Amino acid sequence: MRVRISNDAVAMACGGEAVAAAFAAAGCAVERVSGWGMHWLEPLVEIEGAKGWTGFGPVAPGDVPAILAGTSALGIGAVAEHPFITAQTRLTFMRAGRIRPLSLDDYAGTGGWQGLARARSLAPAEVVAAVIQSGLRGRGGAGFPAGIKWQKVANAFGGSAAGARKFIVCNADEGDSGTFADRMVMEGDPFALIEGMAIAAHAVGAGAGYIYLRSEYPHAIATMRAAIALAAERIAPFSVELRVGAGAYVCGEETALLNSIEGKRGVVRAKPPLPALQGLFGCPTVVNNVLTLAAVSHILREGGAADYAALGVGRSKGTMPVQLGGNIARGGLVEVPFGITLGELIHDFGGGTASGRPVKAAQVGGPLGAYMPPDQFHLPLDYEAFTAADALIGHAGVVVFDDTADMGRLARFAMEFCAVESCGKCTPCRIGSTRGVELIDRIRAGSTVDALASQPQIRNAPKAAPSRAADIALLEDLCDTMRGASLCALGGFTPYPVLSALKHWPEDFGGDFGA
Amino acid sequence: MDSPSHLAEILAAHAGREGALLPILHDVQAAFGCVTGEAEAAIAEALNLSRAEVHGVVSFYHDFRETADPRPHLQICRAEACQARGVEALMAAAQQAAGTRVALEAVYCLGLCAAGPAARVVGADVGEALHARLDAGSLTRLIEGL
Questions:
Q1: How many other β-carbons are positioned within 10 Å of the β-carbon of residue A451?
Q2: Once rounded to an integer, what is the mean pLDDT over residues A478-484?
């Protein structure tokens, strides 16, 4: 009997290896495939029967005999027919759950390399035009139109200068809490990323590419390494090299990432010059997120750009792989066209909290994203709508909290995280984050006078206890400075979680604050 | 301690590579468990950098250590998604189980955000590295088994 079990990191972390061994010991032919992105069901097992494939999950090794005997209660029917999957529009994740990640045959058999073949039959400018036409915006967080970025790199040196070095850099430093879509692409469909990079290289005239992958993703590193070796011939003369990060969150910022590949401290660079003109080793460089590049391999297929542009709302075109995490009943990957509301994502797809308690907040866009209360859950997933609401989509991670969450503590954590991970180059981020932690502590403790400041040697500090209102005003002022004067999004966006928590849950910042 | 011939082999393997410092440091850390001052000096010499430049990089990144720590290392995710699933309530028991025998480190996201609390055994084989849906009992057993 044939059995499919995912070998992606979630399945492995939930015990997939032992389940696979149990099926193998029972005489089954076990195939290791990519994950469907239904993380509450992992380890998810599919069994081939007379009526096709049937899913079971979450499976423990002890469940194997009952599944094989047909008496297990864990069955969910055909996984491809599950409402969680059928309600999605999977383009970037069209192969999730359906292929063996490192099988070139499976990849080619599911439309793989068609985008690259078509791109190489077109002039580079036509490839850029197709990406512009698709409306694809950078999926890493900033939402900058991908085609415009490519055009800038293609036109560097006046568009000619044969022999001038250019690079494609894939940002796979997925450090945001609540995000795992990049990991799923790299572990489940690595050739799609490589194909996207090869298409970008053709479009801008780049000879080499780098994937900068964080060290916290050992499975993705192993799969990507193997995939790069397998695909080398297919993408030649373009070549891709994997570089592993070293635990610095700030290296997800594109200029810090470039410094890190160059072998330097992951310190942010001032812009301009833009990486498109002076990027890696000073050469014109496309820096795109994993999801952006993986989407390109779909967009460049026949009719792909028009199909993509037909989805979405406003200036947010195509689909977004949303990641549902945190305290959620049905967490996982939900790829849907822009325009879906946050409430639909959390309640219809996610089924509310895992704890069964009411939802208190959702943080969208990672540790630098705003905390949103349920009365904002009507907001459509749209870059402009989120910006107007002082929030961001970022990499579309949605982390759900139930009513036990202490939003004041989470606001403090946001500042503390910024202090730990700041690269130290600009003052608002390096010092502002530490002052922010102290200030939030003081507000939560009841705005007492600071022990150090009350010393006679500190002559210019006020000796009376500050009023709570004055401390809140100071925190807002600090956030304003960080937002306006930081060099990159780490210091610049840390105010989002802090101010949104303060605005919507002032009672979590100490007893009588709301009064 | 450092076997100079092995360090020389690592440096030779990366000779001529552009931006080779991080890959070299990863290899040195994997081979020796740390990047010592002597190793920094040798790497600086090989890459035509100053010792200060190499030390600046070693000290910038959380992954690199300047002294070896032979204890087993467990990274526990303390980021928002695992906080939402209750990781902070597990930490006191985890610290107690770890004592001084196991080094517990905070990590900010292992990408298992719908299946937290999550942890990673550093240096383990890929198949055994990650653990998800931890509770007080399973986390304690994981730490005791290291």
A1: 7
A2: 97
